[in-house]
Amino acid sequence: MLTSTHHYLHLKLQPKITSELSIRQNIHQALLDFFGITGGSIHLDILWISDDGSEIVVRVDPRDARNVLAAATSSSSPKIQLVKESHFLPSLLSRNPIF
Fold first, then answer.
1. Which of 43, 61, 80, 96 has the maximum number of C-beta atoms within 10 A of its C-beta?
2. pLDDT at position 97, please?
């Protein structure tokens, strides 16, 4: 079994944002609003932003993944939706599950 020290979130943004700083500030503000000072101290890395700014991939500690997801998806501006999440970064490449 592969173990990972990271968790990856593939998120969709509406409206589109191409600035890493703006995205980081929006997620940080959502964490502060949702969890207060404790949530604001959660570290995250933005690994990828689509060319048009509609999607991002974020890396977080697995223990913080649920908090980041809860805060980010509760944000109304920008609206952030989960596309996919995984402990294994390459698995975010597949869009549709295979049955």
1. 80
2. 56
Are the CB atoms for 46 and 58 separated by under 8 Å? yes
Q: What are the backbone dihedrals phi and psi of residue 60, each rounded to the nearest 5 degrees, phi first?
A: -135, 165
Burial class (CB in 10 A: 0-12, 13-18, 19+), 61: middle
Q: Is this structure's pTM higher than 0.70?
A: yes
Which residues sit opposite 14 in a β-bridge? 79
Q: Is the pLDDT of residue 36 over 80?
A: yes
Helix, coil or strand: residue 47: strand
| 80/91 Cα distance (integer angstroms) | 20
Q: What stretches of 1-84 show up as alpha helix (H) in DSSP?
A: 20-40, 65-74
